[in-house]
Amino acid sequence: MKIDLPERKKLVHEMRFPVRWGDMDAMGHVNNTVYFRYLETARIDWMVAMGCRPDPDGQGPVIAHAFCNFYHQLEYPADVLLRMYVSDPGRTTFETWGTMERQSQPGVICAAGGATTIWVDFRQSKAVPLPDWMRALVE
Hints:
Strands 1, 2, 3, 4, 5 and 6 form a six-stranded antiparallel sheet that branches. The chain is α+β, with helices and mostly antiparallel strands. It starts with 9 loop residues before the first strand and ends with a helix. It has one domain: Hotdog Thioesterase (Thiol Ester Dehydrase, Chain A, Roll). The radius of gyration is 16 Å and the shape is elongated. Helices cover 18% and strands 40% of the residues.
């Protein structure tokens, strides 16, 4: 299955992780909500690696919209490769994208999702322009 990501996307992060037994639901596959947790973990790992630690007294990312499309089931045991991309910086926003595949089946995308990320001043609870350093990372 071909996954269409924006042509402007930029690969910024890769992570590998095992599917945990507790990630599965009663149907024997990874629960749909867990894929969002995988995407969240990749976003946070990337941000921390870039020196942007979550700070409730400062500024940082808030997710305004998230989605995930499911193509092939993931189930325990499996190791997953998640690739994260960024694109489309706006005044206060940028897009993140992620693809997930089993390491044992390279190139076969099991799920793909993303999120619109808004840069927020947490104390003021309002969107603010992307800092220049973040804009440089996502352009």
